[in-house]
């Protein structure tokens, strides 16, 4: 790679959630990286994505995916593709209208709704 350390883009935390309180909280967190993503990091993510896609059909374990349809960090199409290609007989894809990336932090009750759906899904499988 010609310029592996070349800064490509910075993380825009406003894409994570509509929850202003949470955004303010993470803006003060010293452990959160705020720098630029390097070209090497971006290329590595793309390469691993290409390697993972053919493996989706090998997934047979139960899983639950919660995805916001307004997520600008991870595209909904990726979750849909994973769901469609997996061979699990017990799989759930729940799409939250208006939800951003960090669904558990979303305001207006959505975060609570997401967490309750996850707990319910787990409890149904623990009991059976």
UniProtKB/TrEMBL annotation:
<dbReference type="Pfam" id="PF12146">
    <property type="entry name" value="Hydrolase_4"/>
</dbReference>
<dbReference type="InterPro" id="IPR051044">
    <property type="entry name" value="MAG_DAG_Lipase"/>
</dbReference>
<protein>
    <submittedName>
        <fullName>Monoglyceride lipase</fullName>
    </submittedName>
</protein>
<feature type="domain" description="Serine aminopeptidase S33">
    <location>
        <begin position="2"/>
        <end position="108"/>
    </location>
</feature>
<dbReference type="InterPro" id="IPR022742">
    <property type="entry name" value="Hydrolase_4"/>
</dbReference>
<dbReference type="InterPro" id="IPR029058">
    <property type="entry name" value="AB_hydrolase_fold"/>
</dbReference>
């Amino acid at each position: 790679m010609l310029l592996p350390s070349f800064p490509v883009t910075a993380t825009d935390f406003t894409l994570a959630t509509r929850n202003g309180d949470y955004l303010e909280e993470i803006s003060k967190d010293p452990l959160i990286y705020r720098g630029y993503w390097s070209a090497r990091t971006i290329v590595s993510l793309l390469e691993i994505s290409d390697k993972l896609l053919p493996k989706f059909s090998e997934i047979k374990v139960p899983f639950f995916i919660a995805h916001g349809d307004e997520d600008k960090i991870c595209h909904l199409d990726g979750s849909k593709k994973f769901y469609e290609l997996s061979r699990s007989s017990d799989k759930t894809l729940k799409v939250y209208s208006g939800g951003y990336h960090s669904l558990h932090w979303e305001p207006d009750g959505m975060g609570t709704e997401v967490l309750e759906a996850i707990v319910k899904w787990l409890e149904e499988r623990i009991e059976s």
